[in-house]
Amino acid sequence: MTWNYRIVAIPWEDETEYAIYEVYYDDDGKPIARTEQPVGCIAADIRELAQEFKYMSLAFTEPVLHEEDFRS
Questions:
Q1: DSSP 8-state symbol, 13
Q2: Cα–Cα dist 35/55, whole Å
Q3: Is residue 72's pLDDT more than 70?
Q4: pLDDT averaged over every residue in the chain
């Protein structure tokens, strides 16, 4: 199983909210799960924080995922 950061669109009342989540994939690369809450950028020092932000920013280069993308 692999994972990365992805933007996920979550319907909420009459709107859609977008946030970055950790998304997990099966062996075929299909998204199968996401973290319950969006993720933040936290690190032990500024260099690690910059690296984590870089990984998270890659989510903007991928298509937005939706709830139905996690259904079989």
A1: T
A2: 16
A3: no
A4: 95
